[in-house]
Amino acid sequence: MTRTDRVSRLIAASPAAVYGALLDRAALEAWLPPDDMSGRIERWDPRPGGGFRMVLTYLDPTGSPGKTSEATDVVEVGFVDLVEPELVVQQAEFEADDPAYAGTMTMTWNLTGTGHGTEVTVTATGVPPGIGQADHEAGIASSLAHLAAYVEAAH
Fold it and tell me: Which residues form the Activator of Hsp90 ATPase homologue 1/2-like C-terminal domain (predicted)?
């Protein structure tokens, strides 16, 4: 059975503002990395069939938590579908020698306008078995909190 990780958050901004932050290179570098990481985008092509390569660096690599090196996770992300301002579908693949982190994970970002902003629901399928569900959902929640802070401060 394929595991599905799902996290939602209400963000006090329009779907267009949230969608914009999902497709802006500088914005992604600012808000996407979870609390314990920083991020740098090395390649950027924001269109269906395009994508980006992001290097995530652990702020404290004690215990060698990285998937690509002891201090980093490198992920190749492809844009599968972009429907402005309501949907972003990405396929992510980590660079890792450990087969527990191999495979392509699909991340679907659904943006639903509400009277109070945008309900953002991130659904991940095909999550590599080496990524624990609780840790993954906490990482997504952290990124969503950063996304909320980023777009809410801009509006």
Answer: 13-152
Q: What is the rounded average pLDDT for all residues in the chain?
A: 93
pLDDT confidence of residue 81:
98
Contact 61, 38 (CB under 8 A): no
CA distances from 74 to 10, 54, 67, 150 (A): 29, 6, 8, 23
* pLDDT value, residue 63: 72
Number of domains in the chain: 1
Decide: pTM greater than 0.85: yes
Secondary structure (H, E, C), the chain: CCCEEEEEEEECCCHHHHHHHHCCHHHHHHHCCCCCEEEEEEEEECCCCCEEEEEEEECCCCCCCCCCCCCEEEEEEEEEEEECCCEEEEEEEECCCCHHHCCCEEEEEEEEEECCEEEEEEEEECCCCCCCHHHHHHHHHHHHHHHHHHHHHHC
- Host domain of residue 137: 4-154
